[in-house]
Design a protein that fits this description.
By secondary structure, the chain is an alpha/beta fold. Helices cover 38% and strands 8% of the residues. The chain is built from eleven helices and six strands. The strands form two sheets. Strands 1-6-4-5 form a four-stranded parallel β-sheet. Strands 2-3 form a two-stranded antiparallel ribbon.
Length: 318
């Protein structure tokens, strides 16, 4: 049953819920008022999230060796890792995720999610869009939907991929495509990003002069072009790009070397950990969605060695 609202704002699931709570004396109008108050942040001190960090573990980690160990299964079926207790009673995860175990009350483990798509490509698209792949229609990724519904500030890219992502804007169009850094940041080092970092000693003042020159040329040739609508679209992209390039806030947000050492240390020095640090800085600066891609999780060979020695420690620390 889908969660889509009907035109009058009532979900089918709402009607089923009211069928249950109605026996307690709560009618549909009362239920909807409470729901609206909760969604608008009117109930309690909890605020609705306006941004997201999405971590893509390419290949898919083994759930039996991470968050859903089977300690009571026969030895020939279970893995070699042992479960450890978390700060949530009754919840246990892998022994190689000790830091995550200490903050288990801050996240939710979904153990009932599955699909029937055998190929990585289709399964990944299903997860990243929330829709089964169709040959006739390309659905937008979660990040693209987010920045369409909740646009960010003009001086920060709304959707950033570190270093890249499989998410695409689909039928929403390139306006909602992710901005890819193209590289992974390193600890204690400036992070130069094409389109953000001013290259070759270029200053903001020089960028402004170039923009004025381009504007003069555009005005000189205005009226000679037939595709006025296309040009207007390109102009809007150029204006947004200029706002980001000349934004001191954007340049500083991408420069992880400016982070306070005590805070940066918490993320570790691996590429994944520093990428998580970058994601935090971008969200704080106004970016709506950041995806972090981590490769190597398709562990058909050397699964336990790779998980124990490199993949899980970096993931746990980041």
């Amino acid at each position: 049953m889908g969660g889509y609202r009907t035109c009058d704002g009532v979900r089918r699931r709402d009607l089923l819920k009211v069928g249950v709570v109605g026996s307690l004396g709560l009618a549909l109008p009362d239920y909807l008022r409470l729901t609206e108050a909760a969604e608008s942040g009117g109930s309690g001190n909890r605020k609705r999230a306006t941004s997201a960090i999405f971590i893509e573990l390419a290949g898919g980690p083994s759930h039996l060796d991470t968050f859903d160990l089977k300690p009571n299964a026969p030895a020939e079926f279970r893995g070699s890792f042992k479960p450890i207790k978390t700060n949530v009673p009754g919840v246990e995860i892998c022994e190689h995720l000790p830091k995550l175990a200490q903050v288990a009350d801050k996240f939710c483990i979904l153990r009932g999610v599955s699909h029937t798509l055998a190929a990585h490509q289709f399964g990944r698209e299903y997860v990243l869009t929330g829709n089964r792949p169709l040959p006739s229609l390309e659905y937008p990724g979660l990040g693209s939907v987010l920045i369409k519904e909740r646009p960010g500030t003009r001086d920060m890219p709304g959707f950033v991929a570190v270093p890249s992502t499989s998410q695409r804007p689909g039928f929403l169009g390139v306006r909602y495509a992710p901005f890819s850094t193209g590289a992974t940041p390193r600890a204690n080092a400036p992070f130069n990003v094409r389109g953000i970092t001013l290259a070759g000693g270029l200053t903001v003042a020089e960028v402004e002069r170039r923009k004025k020159l381009r504007t003069m040329l555009d005005r000189a040739f205005q009226g000679y072009e037939e595709e006025d609508q296309l040009l207007e679209g390109l102009d809007s992209f150029s204006e947004r790009a200029h706002a980001i390039i000349t934004s001191r806030k954007a340049r500083e947000a991408f420069d992880v070397s400016k982070e306070k050492p005590a805070f940066a240390k918490r993320f570790g020095t691996t590429g994944f950990g520093v990428s998580c640090l970058l994601a935090c800085r971008l969200i704080e600066a106004g970016t709506r969605c950041v995806t972090i891609s981590s490769n190597g999780w398709d562990t058909h060979q050397g699964n336990f060695k790779k998980l124990k020695e490199s993949l899980l420690p970096a993931f746990d620390e980041g």
